[in-house]
């Protein structure tokens, strides 16, 4: 360790051993012993492009979570959303760190380390809070005129039973079967596509594709609502949003329980979502002629105050800005609990989870296609607060000085998201008894048990965590830190192997 290893070499070795390559260093003060040391925390990124080992681990956890809930035969016991001590602690700690970061920024200092800490904490908090508000969004509180309220689609409706379990079937041989569904939902066509790129880019409906991607998660919400109404029970699902080759998001969904295939197709066909936003087809302000801030945005020529977001909503006509539906391609597959088929579906479901939506571009034609998609997204309003509304003569919600259309910084406009900024994994509240954090804990407990060590719950107040200052002498060069983690991983592996060998050796009489 005397010679610091080149970072890229250490990274390659770390990847081979499944060790995080972008660890976040934190100073940990042990309140019991008074000891203070610098500890590396895994970055936890779900994306391979950021950290392959963490992405792989994340995908495996998701697969375990999917498997756990798919064919449950007993109602999961859900203790609802009350924050655990651990969660509360995480949130409080994050608030402290945010305050420190803001102070640092005010003082003109370097905030990059604190930003890294905050990012890591956000991942932890999101995972800890996975159960609960599953789709992570709440509907608008505005009361809309009945004229604009979305009709319930024309679908059969069963009486609601208070169960989350699907039906079982008994076969002639007396065995009980527990069938479930694997569903794939796709967006409509925007023009003919070959090898993931439009045959005729000039007629390909990029605006339609962009708006569909932006509102895709709402359509999924609607689908679940309709599915439950038709099924007549509290249907549970584990779904992933993944990119198609043409770069549109689509949905794979493991559904607990079963419905007739024709009914699933009927539900998909009847599901739609209307976007009641102001128009965004004709630009009123562009180039150098942009609204200016004068305690609110005003027309640069006349000084007339632009309608605020709420005023613009009050003035909406009878037509929604956009209607999103699924395409004709609906794939419904019956799957039996515990079959190799079920395993195959779970692998398929998580196949692209480690890739961002706009990754994996194949050839020049597809790269051009992605670039045109990003162009179409550039001036498309992504949310009520998007600065792009200024282009269409409306003040964004919570307008503030400095907003420039075409320069929205939210995720949806970025090449790696291609319009879809929502969660990649959607898990219904009563899928299994466990959150992702609990699945993680399972693995840890398993390893510790195998090693013959008790897994004592850690006291959330035992440690005080602090970000490390740039140039902290206790933070070794990254190559050394990676090597240290690799050595630790190897020790665990060797220990586990020895235990396995011991249990495999026939006992001498
Ligand atoms: Zn990592
Ligand atoms: Zn935006």
From TrEMBL:
<dbReference type="InterPro" id="IPR046828">
    <property type="entry name" value="RepSA"/>
</dbReference>
<feature type="region of interest" description="Disordered">
    <location>
        <begin position="133"/>
        <end position="166"/>
    </location>
</feature>
<protein>
    <submittedName>
        <fullName>Replication initiation protein</fullName>
    </submittedName>
</protein>
<feature type="compositionally biased region" description="Basic and acidic residues">
    <location>
        <begin position="148"/>
        <end position="157"/>
    </location>
</feature>
<dbReference type="Pfam" id="PF20199">
    <property type="entry name" value="RepSA"/>
</dbReference>
């Amino acid at each position: 360790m005397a010679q610091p290893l080149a970072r890229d070499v250490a990274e390659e070795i770390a990847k081979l051993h499944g060790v995080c390559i972008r660890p976040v260093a934190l100073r940990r003060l042990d309140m019991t012993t008074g000891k203070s040391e610098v500890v590396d925390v895994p970055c936890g990124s779900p994306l391979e492009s950021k950290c392959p080992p963490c992405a792989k681990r994340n995908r495996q956890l998701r697969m375990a979570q999917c498997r756990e809930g798919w064919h449950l035969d007993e109602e999961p016991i859900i203790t609802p959303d009350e924050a655990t001590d651990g969660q509360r602690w995480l949130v409080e700690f994050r608030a402290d760190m945010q305050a420190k970061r803001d102070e640092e920024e005010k003082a003109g200092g370097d905030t990059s380390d604190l930003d890294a800490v905050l990012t890591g904490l956000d991942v932890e908090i999101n995972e800890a809070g996975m159960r609960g508000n599953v789709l992570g969004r709440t509907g608008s509180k505005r009361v809309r005129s009945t004229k604009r309220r979305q009709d319930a689609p024309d679908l059969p409706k069963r009486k609601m039973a208070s169960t989350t379990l699907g039906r079982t079937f008994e076969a002639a041989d007396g065995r009980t079967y527990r069938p479930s569904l694997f569903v794939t939902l796709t967006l409509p066509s925007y023009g003919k596509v070959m090898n993931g790129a439009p045959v005729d880019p000039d007629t390909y409906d990029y605006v339609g594709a962009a708006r569909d991607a932006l509102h895709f998660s709402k359509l999924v919400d609607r689908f679940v609502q309709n599915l439950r109404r038709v099924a007549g029970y509290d249907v549970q699902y584990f779904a992933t949003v993944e990119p198609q080759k043409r770069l549109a998001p689509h949905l794979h969904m493991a559904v607990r329980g079963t419905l007739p295939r024709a009914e699933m197709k009927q539900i998909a066909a009847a599901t739609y979502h209307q976007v009641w936003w102001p128009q965004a087809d004709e630009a009123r302000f562009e180039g150098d002629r942009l609204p200016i801030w004068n305690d609110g945005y005003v027309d640069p020529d006349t000084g007339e105050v632009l309608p605020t977001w709420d005023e613009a909503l009050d003035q909406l006509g009878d037509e929604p800005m956009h209607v999103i539906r699924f395409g004709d391609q609906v794939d419904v597959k019956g799957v039996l609990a515990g079959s190799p088929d079920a395993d195959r579906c779970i692998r398929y479901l998580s196949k692209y989870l480690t890739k961002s939506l706009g990754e994996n571009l194949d050839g020049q034609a597809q790269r051009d296609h992605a670039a045109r998609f990003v162009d179409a997204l550039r001036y498309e309003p992504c949310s009520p607060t998007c600065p792009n509304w200024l282009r269409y003569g409306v003040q964004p919600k919570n307008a503030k000085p400095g907003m420039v259309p075409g320069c929205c910084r939210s995720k949806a406009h970025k090449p790696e998201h291609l319009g879809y900024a929502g969660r990649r994994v959607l898990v219904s509240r009563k899928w299994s008894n466990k959150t992702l954090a609990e699945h993680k804990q399972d693995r840890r407990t398993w390893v510790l048990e195998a090693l013959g060590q008790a897994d004592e719950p850690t006291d959330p107040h035992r440690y005080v965590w602090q970000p490390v200052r740039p140039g902290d002498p206790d933070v070794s060069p990254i190559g050394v830190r990676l090597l240290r983690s690799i050595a630790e991983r190897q020790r665990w592996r060797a220990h586990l192997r020895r235990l396995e060998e011991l249990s495999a050796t026939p006992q001498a009489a």
